[in-house]
Input
Amino acid sequence: MDLSYSPEAEAYRAKVRAFLAANLPADWQGLGALAGDEAEEWADRWRDVMAKNGFLGITWPKEYGGQGLTKLEQVVLGEELARARVPQYRAVDTTNIKMLGNTLVKWGTEEQKQKYLPRILSGEDTWVQGYSEPEAGSDLASVHLKAELDGDEWVLNGQKIWTSRGMEGTAIFLLARTDNTAAKHRGITFMLCPISTPGLEVRPIRTLTGVEEFCEVFLTDVRIPVANVVGPVNEGWKVANSLLGLERGEEAATNPIYFKAELERVIQLARDKGRINDPIIRDRLAWCHMKVEMMRFLGYRILTAVLRDGALGPEASISKLFWSEYHQVLADLAMELLGPEATVREGRRPYKHYRADEPGAANSSNSWIDVFLMNARSGTVYAGTSEIQRNILAENILGLPKEPQTNS
Ligand SMILES: Cc1cc2nc3c(=O)[nH]c(=O)nc-3n(C[C@H](O)[C@H](O)[C@H](O)COP(=O)(O)OP(=O)(O)OC[C@H]3O[C@@H](n4cnc5c(N)ncnc54)[C@H](O)[C@@H]3O)c2cc1C
Output
């Protein structure tokens, strides 16, 4: 097995390193070493620096603002940014660049690509995800948001929920029901809608962590032009699923770098708490180390499949299932090491740009409880629950019989 990268990818690594050396402060410790507000401002400024230097959307074609590079260079970029302890982009760019941008590259019309992709990279537009509804989560194909054609406009009525960072979005991509008579996986259309469209209202939801990260989105007679449909009308399920593949598996090869850094912090916590020689703790840490290594090789496997096939298949579910379940075990171990301290929040609340905590952040109870424990809990729910990932793997990789459907 040859795990070395191509000469082109290594040349790109040298370019990224030169960029980082020229743009990061000499005494740079990592985003987590900055104070709360300072970290947030720095991360926003850093995103602009990345955009202006052509380090966002690097796999997109050059004519839309990208660099025309491959997923391998994307991985190299992720590796170098992680090592340099800087974020790839803002948290909301997960839905903006990774999900919608990449989906438009694949499914968008020429006009849509020219119109939206450069605005995504520049930060003028920020897209959020409008998939889930009160009655459609795991069973996403049950979406009810009603879309009726009126001349050259679609008129939307209904509700979305759990829209992450909805208050930061300038636009939302939606799954709408355009044919009530078709089987439920047909009759769905993928649409683009500016948040400022009359009749659209975003309401924040305050969560257990005290922040208003989620939103409900209400749509009443919202009118959008037919040009805002991505992919064929009534075939939005295919577009929706290729986007979900990106959400679940895109970072499979770079995530283990963050998980490794996170595990090192837990090992440090064990040292700080005088538990590092406890054989049971050592055994559990060793188990975590093995899992991180397995994720690293799984990441290479997924990357190989992407480079070969040009897209992610059901393999994306393996990675999602693996890291989200591992993360909960590690979070529980960290809580146990913190002991009674875990009931008292101390230190600053980290500004999360990573799946893991920010490099350089203090090993405080606040940082572990907010970023780590709470996020680890939600990891097995968002982007499709563990049960749904297992269903996908059973049906699409193992070839087991399909689940009975009530209307398909
Ligand atoms: C942090 C976070 C961020 C999110 N961000 C967004 C966002 O930006 N945009 C968006 O649209 N949505 C978002 N979501 C919503 C997310 O996609 C849904 O929560 C998820 O798909 C599960 O749907 P549900 O909550 O309705 O649970 P349900 O579908 O009601 O599931 C409840 C339970 O039943 C189980 N279950 C359901 N069906 C089956 C089955 N067929 N077989 C076995 N078990 C089953 C589930 O696994 C789960 O344990 C987010 C969720 C979280 C936690």
Observations:
- The chain has three domains: 7-89, 127-242, 251-396.
